[in-house]
Amino acid sequence: MSGKDRNTLVLFVLALVFIFIRLYNIENPFSTNGIDEGIHLIQAKMVGQGYNLYSELGGDQAPLAILVFSVLKGNVMASRLLSFSLFLAGVSSSFLIASRLRGRRAGVLAMLVLAMDFTLLRESRLASLDLFSASLLSISALFFIIYMDCRKWEYVAVASLFLSMSCLSKMIAAPFAFLVTIAFLYKMLKDRNFIHLSVYAISFAIPVVLLMLAFTPQELLDGILFRQAGRGFDIYSKLSILLFIGPGFIYLVSLKRWNLKDRKVVFIILWLLSILVFVMIQGRTFQHHFAYVSFPAAILASVVISDLPDRNLKKRALISSFIAVNALISVSLIATAPHDMSYDVAAEIDSITPPGSLVIS
Fold first, then answer.
1. C-beta separation of 12 from 115 below 8 A
2. 188 vs 177: CA distance, rounded Å
3. How crowded is residue 331: how many other Cβ atoms within 10 Å of its Cβ?
4. pLDDT digits (tens, 9 = 90+) for 272-289
């Protein structure tokens, strides 16, 4: 085994360690987004009992993720483990995308960066709508990249299906979906490829049609769009980008080289910028929104770093410092996560209420 292969193996093992270490003490998260998690899981539990997410519970998010959590009856640990599984799927998709762009070592680098990303560390320990949607978007992107190489309708179908499900989990994915749809429509009409265009449209429509069996169009519009429009604008919330880019300083390297002649790289750039711009201009920007940005940013960063010479001192220093900083953050946050008092409150309420009661505290 060459020295280069040994280094790649070490990074791969390190990535696996920091992917699975987040499962430790997962019953005690340290993210303030746990407030949203509680709201969404209560909604999921009540949807599972027959309540309407929008007309009765006042839901103000896209429904798919909450409906999936409702199948789990809003169970906290089961929903968190599902979230972790989707995170694992998103990381795997990003690994495969980066590998197709620059080889296996780039894939391992993308995997390592995502494994140690501070934002994803927080979100992958919660039942997070943002991570749910972002992971589906990463899977969709993989199949679009594969389609660019082989032009088979099967890959269009899968890519479009996951793109639709991502948007129906949380609408932050919509700007990227809009750009992809416009570009795909232009390309297919130019090539007169109406079969692939039809496959794209039908696959995208399938989840929408299924949801319309559960909700009226007005309920979906109210819940997904109109109730979101009532949120105020907070300029100071934009500073949450510092919590993303601070520990994730390795992402800044991707700004140096964007090969605009490579259509796959252009695709990843559109993925990154369409969501980053939308996140920054919407009413309120929270740190968990950057879970969407992590996947394309990690892929681009891994491509740029892989193009640097192996013995480049700046390359080694960048990777080493990123690992050191984020390893310290990850281990310290996971190891010191405080006991969640909600378990004690729930146990006390359970002891003084009849079996089967639903108590919202």
1. no
2. 16
3. 13
4. 999 999 999 988 888 889
